[in-house]
Amino acid sequence: MENNVLSEKSATTKGYMTPKEFLAHWQGHRSLTRRVIDAFPEDQLFSFSIGGMRPFSDLAKEFTTMGVPSLHGMITGEWKGLDVLAPAGVKANPETKEELLALWDALTVRITELFNKIPEADFHKQISLFNQYDGEIYSLLLYIVDNEIHHRGQGYVYLRALNIEPPYFYER
Amino acid sequence: MENNVLSEKSATTKGYMTPKEFLAHWQGHRSLTRRVIDAFPEDQLFSFSIGGMRPFSDLAKEFTTMGVPSLHGMITGEWKGLDVLAPAGVKANPETKEELLALWDALTVRITELFNKIPEADFHKQISLFNQYDGEIYSLLLYIVDNEIHHRGQGYVYLRALNIEPPYFYER
C-alpha cells in the first residue's frame, strides 16, 4: 500500500519538469546553436559584428566555457576552466569553424555524462558557481541555457544582416 | 509513518524545478523585456529594423499574444486571441510605447493568476495548443519563454546599433 501511494505521489510530483526533460531542453538548444554556428561563412563567423558587439564565434566560445566547467564544479566542488576540462583531442580555444564544431560535439557528450551524475535532490542545492555566482543548481543551469538563447538570437540578426536564412527557431 | 515517508519523498521530488519556480523564471524574463521595450525611443521602437526583420514593437506584441491566450486555453480548452482576452482598460493592439507598456503590465498580473490555476499534475498533460502545436504544457510554456528570450536578444542588437546601452541580461 505504501509503495502504491508513493508511486502515485511520484507520478504527480515531477514538479514543473524532470531533470531528464531539462537535459533534453538544453541539448535541443545546443543542437540548434550548432546549426547557427554552421550557417555562418567562416570569415564572417570570426569577424562580423553589429554595434560594436562580439562576432558570433566569441559568443559561441562563451557558451563552451560555461556548460562543462559549471557541471564539473557542481559535482566535484572544484572550479576549473575549459583549458583543463576540454575533452581529449579538441582545442579549448578553437580558431576555425571546424575546430569550434569539433569542440561543440565533444562537449555535447560530456554535458550529458556530467548532468546525469547530479542527484535529483541536488538541483535545489545552494552553491557559489566559480565562487562568484550564488544560486541553486537548477537556476544556474537554466541561466546557462537562457544565455545561449539570448546570444544566439543576436546571431540570427547577424545572419539576416548577411542575407543568410537562419535555421528555424522551433526545430531542435 | 506513511505521512513521514510521503513528505520526505515530496522534499526530494520537486523535479528539476517547481511550478512556482518556473513562474518566477517567466516573470523575471518578462520584467527584463519590459525594460528593453522601455529602453527604445518611441519612434525606433515602432520602426527600427536590421536585415528586413520586424521592429521591436512587433516582437513585443508577439509575446503579448502568446502568454495569456495560451494559459487561458490550457485551463479552459478554448483557444481565443488577445482581442477577446486582453484585460479591461488596455488595448490588445497597442500603437504607442505607453499603450504597449500598459498592456504588458496588465498581462503580468493575468499570467500569474492563470498560471496558478494549473494543477501541478497537468504540466505533463499532452495538449494541442490552438489546435496546432502538440506538446506537454510544461514544454509549450517553456517555448513561450524561450521565444521571448530569443527575440529580446535581437532587440539588444537593435539597441546597440542605435548606440543605446541595453539593460543587463542577468538582472531580472
Automatic annotation (TrEMBL), chains A, B:
Q: Keyword Transport, does the record have it?
A: no
Top-rank lineage group of the source organism: Bacteria
Keyword hit for Transport = no
Q: Which GO terms describe its molecular function?
A: metal ion binding
State where a divalent metal cation binds: 151
Q: Which residues form a coiled coil?
A: none
* One protein family per Pfam: DinB
Supply the SUPFAM superfamilies for this chain: DinB/YfiT-like putative metalloenzymes (SSF109854)
Q: Which UniProt keywords apply?
A: Metal-binding
InterPro entries assigned to the protein according to its UniProt record, in alphabetical order: DinB (IPR007837), DinB/YfiT-like (IPR034660)
Q: What family does this belong to?
A: Belongs to the DinB family.
User: Mind telling me what this protein is named?
Assistant: Uncharacterized damage-inducible protein DinB (Forms a four-helix bundle)
User: Which organism encodes this protein?
Assistant: Chitinophaga terrae (ex Kim and Jung 2007)
